[in-house]
Write a structure and sequence with these properties.
Blueprint lengths: L6 H15 L36 H5 L5 E6 L6 H14 L4 E5 L6 H5 L9 E2 L7 E5 L2 H14 L9 H11 L14 H5 L5 H15 L8 E5 L3 H38 L8 H20 L5 E7 L3 H16 L4 E9 L8 H19 L7 E6 L8 H11 L2
Parallel strand pairs: 1-5, 1-6, 2-4, 2-5, 6-7, 7-8
Antiparallel strand pairs: 3-4
Helix pairs in contact: 3-13, 5-6, 6-8, 6-10, 8-9, 9-10
Protein name: ATPase ARSA1
GO biological process, one term: tail-anchored membrane protein insertion into ER membrane
Family: Belongs to the arsA ATPase family.
């Protein structure tokens, strides 16, 4: 009878009963609170309670020494950068020299690593066991590099990999050729870059990763992509450029033939073929990029979302678009899931109900239901810095 009048013992019995009925073997957090990341001064994580979820299959992802590319994308604000950065740290700690690249014009990779990565060059990340480098693509710096290269070559072209970005966005806006010089003119477009420049520069970086010797050391390259619209433009750009360059080359051939006939009457020399050669090289490289994006052995796109109806709906459309582009997609990360709790306050109960409805949408969605679902819990601190990213990687990438 004394037990009935002891609030402390009653609370203990209630928690014990809830543990007996709970499918989760881990200790339950306090009532109505998210899982707690306990960090000492050494920033080592002590414990966390997480929901039961499917494993990510990280052993499969880390197997082999051949280079692999992982692209993480989805709706804005769902945690793409944290997931990409934590995957990079996990790969590096498992022996893979890794490069993580942000293609989002509004970068947050520096914030995630708590380190300045804004220079547009490779920056070593301190902390992981194997080499880990990060890069935030800087469109303004790339434009300056393009402009300098153009000036060094007389204002008519660029060299090495820089020609890819310039030629790409010139083709993107249908820029015309100069019949008198027989080459592309670049200067005016550099001052007023058209829409699509960010994607064109990202494509040029992909080609550098494939061809440049300085990137040959990396066995894993991870792309923290922009929100859905930018990413779809990036993935569709190789096809668009391939078709556009083909049309431009045909037009140029017709115009060059007419110009040659006119100039031959006056005894002028034939125009050089530098621009045509560069366009053909660009077209071949775009085909390589397209094949890389669609290579099921070396490339995978991972969709990141949160358990809301709006985010799940956009993820479904993204998955459909990726499959139309023949981009391999096998995994879906559902981030920020409320952890198990013995009981809920009104706010948590409503939030959990909304999340359950969103998770049910995934199970019934024809685009998402076949993907391997990875559930990541909501935590009560900001994931920032390598120790916190290592902690997140242990939760998500199992």
């Amino acid at each position: 009878m004394l037990l009935a009048h002891s609030p402390y013992l009653a609370c203990r019995l209630s928690l014990a009963a809830s543990r007996r009925l709970s499918p989760c073997p881990l200790p339950l957090p306090s009532i109505c609170s998210p899982p707690t990341l306990v960090v000492r001064r050494t920033l080592r994580v002590r414990s966390i309670a997480v929901p039961a979820e499917a494993t990510a299959g990280f052993d499969e992802m880390a197997a082999g020494t051949e280079r692999k590319y992982y692209m993480l994308g989805g709706k804005g604000g769902v945690g793409k950068t944290s997931c990409a950065a934590s995957l990079a740290v996990k790969f590096a700690n498992n022996g893979h020299p890794t490069l993580v690249v942000s293609t989002d014009p509004a970068h947050s990779l520096s914030d995630s690593f708590a380190q300045d990565l804004s220079g547009g060059t490779l920056v070593p990340v301190d902390g992981p066991d194997s080499p880990l480098f990060a890069l935030e693509i800087n469109p303004e710096k790339a434009r300056e590099e393009f402009r300098s290269a153009s000036q060094r070559s007389g204002g008519t072209g660029v060299k090495d990999f820089m020609d890819i970005g310039i030629l790409a966005f010139q083709a993107f806006v249908g820029f015309t050729f100069s019949l008198s010089a027989g080459e592309l003119k670049l200067g005016e477009l550099l001052d007023t870059p058209p829409p699509g420049l960010d994607e064109a520069i990202a494509i040029s970086k992909v080609m550098q990763f494939v061809e440049a010797q300085e990137y040959s050391m990396f066995s894993r390259i991870i792309f923290d992509t922009a929100p859905t619209g930018h990413t779809l433009r990036l993935l569709s750009l190789p096809d668009f450029l391939d078709a556009s360059i083909g049309k431009i080359m045909k037009l140029r051939q017709k115009l060059a033939s007419a110009a040659s006939a006119i100039k031959s009457v006056f005894g002028q020399e034939e125009p050089r073929q530098d621009a045509t050669d560069k366009l053909e090289q660009l077209r071949e490289r775009m085909i390589k990029v397209r094949e890389l994006f669609r290579d099921t052995e070396s490339t995978e796109f991972i969709i990141v979302t949160i358990p809301t109806v709006m985010a799940i709906s956009e993820s479904s459309r993204l998955c459909s678009s990726l499959r139309k582009e023949n981009v391999p997609v096998k995994r879906l990360i559902v981030n920020q899931i409320l952890p198990p709790s013995a009981s809920d306050c009104k706010f948590c109960a409503m939030k959990r109900k909304d999340q359950m409805r969103a998770l049910e949408m995934i199970q019934n969605d024809p685009e998402l239901m076949s993907l391997k679902q990875i559930q990541a819990p909501l935590v009560d601190v900001e994931i920032r810095g390598v120790p916190a990213l290592r902690f997140m990687g242990e939760i998500v990438w199992k």
